[in-house]
Design brief:
Two copies of one chain form a homodimer. Chain A has 139 residues and is α+β, with helices and mostly antiparallel strands. Chain A contains six helices and five strands, in the order ααααββββαβα. Chain A has one domain: Arc Repressor Mutant, subunit A (Orthogonal Bundle), CATH 1.10.10.10. The longest helix of chain A has 14 residues. Chains A and B meet through helix 5 and strand 5 of A and helix 5 and strand 5 of B. The structure holds a DNA duplex (25 and 25 nucleotides).
Chain lengths: 139, 139
DNA sequence: CTCACTGCAAAGAATTTGCACTGAA
DNA sequence: TTCAGTGCAAATTCTTTGCAGTGAG
């Protein structure tokens, strides 16, 4: 339950809505869009509103408790974040999102690009897509 | 002018609107959002409409003449694409976008992630952000 | 001459804001 | 008790669709 302490320490209140959003995301395992969070959250908290979800996601994202993931089509979903800078690989069949850590290979790549382009890189957006083990089974 | 031939070969017409959108993007060098393309395009083609820009971008993106780039905040812009699968590095100061090719390092990274996660990767979204050479000068 | 393409208006989504009420601390 | 947080309604964007007129081939 350490995220609750993190919230409190940062001066924010631990409310039912925030608990529900976190619980829904923790249970889901796949990236959810705001309206999907609403549907699932309503089961747990009748009066939950979409506006609150937007505001909650903005807060949780700012605190790095939740991460926003992109899709090529421009839609984005939200997933629970692990501590540290990580990236996601998303199954295009079932939507399952798995985090993986950045390794030396990313740094090597960034260094190469810095040399090739003359840029100084200070942020990166990396997301992979493919088939998860379970969906590969079904082929 | 080879993009015009590509359009024609694919059975699409080379119209003024499409020429204007391409020219604006080629001139810009930085990723532009639809409404920015409209503003600049109007200078060249008075009656240009936003709807046409959306439709044109969808077409050009499908033909891989233009690429969509993402920002963490969810906004996205469009830039001229070079042939082949490339990635972008975007200057957070001036917005300048530069393409760079994927090298062995990306394949190595993907292979590592496949081994670690069991996924079979078939697509990736990689975008870097930082300071371009010109903006670094000004520091 | 035809039909793909365009612009406009209007519909639909996605997201944000204003405001009075509610509940966590 | 107090003020951050909430829900609702309405305002903003952002993007897509329907349709009649226009122009590329």
């Amino acid at each position: 339950m350490e995220w609750e302490q993190l919230l409190a320490q940062a001066g924010f209140r631990v409310t039912t809505s925030r608990r529900v959003v976190m619980q829904v995301l923790q249970t889901a395992g796949v990236p959810l869009e705001p309206h999907e969070i609403l549907e699932r959250g309503r089961c747990l908290h009748r009066s939950l509103g979409l506006v609150t979800i937007y505001r909650t996601l903005a807060l949780l994202t700012a605190l790095d408790l939740v991460r926003r993931v992109h899709r090529q089509d421009g839609c984005h979903g939200y997933v629970i974040a692990s501590p540290g800078h990580r990236h996601h690989i998303i199954c295009r069949q079932c939507g399952q999102a798995t985090e993986f850590p950045g390794g030396d290979d990313i740094h090597a790549l960034i260094e190469r690009v810095e040399n090739e382009t003359g840029y100084r890189v200070d942020d990166h957006l990396l997301q992979l897509a493919g088939l998860c083990p379970a969906c590969r089974e079904l082929r």
